[in-house]
Amino acid sequence: MMPQSRKSVIPIAAWVIAGLVFLLLFMMMNWFFFQEAHPPFPWNVVLPAFVPLIAGAYVVLIGYVYGDARRRNMRYVMWTMLAIFVPNAIGIILYFILRDPMPVYCSRCGAAMRNGFAFCPACGNNVLPACPSCGKLLQPGWTHCAWCGVQVGTK
Ligand SMILES: [Zn+2]
Ligand SMILES: [Zn+2]
Questions:
Q1: pLDDT band at residue 114, thresholds of 50, 70 and 90?
Q2: Taking the domains of the chain in order of start, what are their residue ranges?
Q3: Considering the entire predicted model, what is its pTM?
């Protein structure tokens, strides 16, 4: 199988922003709850740690939508905006329902193409094993082409 993507899906910027959001909220929560108020037990742990964690995870999720929509050749700017501005994560949920299937990338020219193509439409590179005689897809382990009968070698 060819590698599906060559770099990490979530951009580094999203991790950095998520870290900053977490730190900022964590400091704000701590300052607020331990200077101004003294909440009872579960809340003095949950509020300063849990709320910033959720906010940070939300930023990472938006970063994932951005990176994932981009590698699927979708309108990633629109989807990132929806993920950010539609409240209650509805934009993110919609994205996971409506996203396109993963394209396969040519190992030679990097062009995106539909899964199951034997040859790259952009450069003609042989992506999946194909019969040298008739060009149809071969299954792993075949010694002869099932379509035209030509010998395709032993693996
Ligand atoms: Zn190609
Ligand atoms: Zn054949």
A1: confident
A2: 12-102, 106-155
A3: 0.64
SS (H, E, C) the chain: CCCCCCCCCCCHHHHHHHHHHHHHHHHHHHHHHHHHCCCCHHHHHHHHHHHHHHHHHHHHHHHHHHHHHHHCCCCHHHHHHHHHHCHHHHHHHHHHHHCCCCCEECCCCCCEECCCCCECCCCCCECCCECCCCCCECCCCCCECCCCCCECCCC
Ligand 2 centroid–CA 144 distance in Å is: 8
Report the C-alpha gap between 84 and 17 in whole angstroms: 13
pLDDT in tens, 45-80: 777 888 899 999 999 999 999 999 998 888 999 999
The backbone torsions φ and ψ at residue 54, rounded to the nearest 5 degrees and listed phi first, read: -65, -45
> In this structure, which ligand is nearest to the CA of 108?
1
CA of 122 to the centre of ligand 2 (A): 23
